[in-house]
Amino acid sequence: QVQLVESGGGLVQAGGSLRLSCAASGSTFSINAMGWYRQAPGKQRELVARIVRGGSTNYADSVKGRFTISGDGAKNTVNLQMNSLKPEDTAVYYCNAEGIVPGPSGSWGPGTQVTVSS
Q1: Helix/strand number for the chain, H first, E second
Q2: Closest by alpha carbon to 92, among 3, 8, 26?
Q3: What is the spatial distance between Cα 38 and Cα 85, in angstroms, rounded to a whole number?
Q4: What is the pLDDT of residue 104?
Q5: By the 8 A CB rule, do 45 and 39 touch?
């Protein structure tokens, strides 16, 4: 099993930046990819960014050009640099670790709140 802990959330004005971090522990050898998801009030949890072991990445259209995901395999961490933040980015951001099966697993971190004021 993998344990995940997110950090770095907070309150920021529109146009500002935040850097989120996710630390994985436990059976980290089984991780093939990690992703950042977010869930705003009344909305479905959605994929924000994903990085595969080896470096391949993908992003939601809404964050392309603004967010950058990166990982450090040796440290078992994944980061999300968020620039040019918008009020619509306000959500709880969650980290998820994938195994050999693509897509989110049943293991999530507790989440970190990101609030962007206008």
Answers
A1: 0, 10
A2: 8
A3: 14
A4: 85
A5: yes
59 and 67 Cβ atoms separated by less than 8 Å? yes
Spatial contact of 90 and 14, defined as CB atoms under 8 Å apart: no
DSSP element (H, E) containing 46? strand 46-52
Side-chain-facing half-sphere of 31: CA atoms under 13 Å: 30
Please state, in angstroms and as integers, the Cα–Cα distance from residue 53 to each residue in 71, 82, 100, 111, 113, following that order.
8, 21, 11, 22, 26
Using alpha carbons, list the distances in angstroms from residue 1 to 30, 77, 98, 109. Answer: 9, 16, 11, 12
Confidence tier at 77 by pLDDT (50, 70, 90): very high
Per-residue pLDDT band for 83 (boundaries 50, 70, 90) equals: very high
Tens digit of each residue's pLDDT (9 = 90 or more) over 58-69:
999 999 999 999
Give the whole-angstrom CA distance, residue 61 versus residue 20.
19
Q: Using alpha carbons only, what angle is made at residue 82 by residues 70 and 18, rounded to the nearest 5 degrees?
A: 105
